[in-house]
Amino acid sequence: MRLRDKVAIVTGAGSGNGAAIAKGFLAAGAKVVFADINVSAAEQEAIQSEYGKDAWIAVEVDVANQSSVEELIRETLKAFSKIDVMVANAGITIRKPFLELSEADYDRVMDVNAKGVFFCSQEAARIMVEQGGGSIIHMSSTTSVLAEGNAVQYGASKGAVAAMTRHMALDLGEQNVRVNAIAPGTIQTKLTGSRLQAEGVVAREAELTMLKRIGQPDDLIGAALFLASDESSFITGTQIFVDGGYSVK
To answer: Which helix (H) or strand (E) holds 70?
Structure first.
């Protein structure tokens, strides 16, 4: 089992990509913290995995609040004594035309998507450095490098994530803490659901990929497992695009 004896935190594990990755980690042998602002949803996802309570806990966290993230770390250490993997996945979007965006819209997206990644990474890294190493995985996006309509603040937040990935990897490399990112294309989740319901959107976005389909949350599990495991021990500071070839077409 690829993650046997490892302890992983996955934020945003109450639905979508985070839930899929967290359950994939359980199947690979890890002890997993399902962390989400909606702790009931996180617990339900963990229960659906059919793994016993000795393999997981569900913890409420607001990633945009440093004290809340610190509590997440404490709860993880209390339950499992260490942290080997942090998946900073929690994210939101507010889709509006650029000229209609408010300061509150911008701040909310940046607080969760960028500041949240900073807090989760920093707090996990403190423990990993003491332990002698670990793997931090950020959830970036193709919007970190490619433009998309009505997504200025989302793209800005994911561009920040991509940049932080490189800089954190440099600062933490000598402490054997690796920092990488996964950059999904269009994935069918609650976050994208309303946009994909519009007539013709799924077909149009599928056509933009080389594989002629949009992604599903389970499509991210392989990349996350690879980056979390020792198989990627010489990989840091990079983004893996999981987008059906969209970003290079």
So the answer is: helix 66-80
For range 69-87, the mean pLDDT: 98
Residue 60 burial by CB count (10 A; 0-12/13-18/19+): exposed, middle or buried?
middle
Q: Which of 51, 106, 154, 246 is catalytic?
A: 154
For 38-80, strand residue ranges (E) read 56-60
Residues 101/217/51/68 CA torsion (nearest 10 deg): -20
pLDDT score recorded for residue 205: 87
pTM strictly above 0.90? yes
What long-range pairs does 47-50 form, CB within 8 A, spacing at least 24? 48/23, 49/22, 49/23
Nearest partner of 74 among 88, 56, 62, 59, judged by Cα: 59
Residue 234 is which amino acid?
F
Q: What is the pLDDT of residue 194?
A: 63
> Does the annotation mark 154 as catalytic?
yes
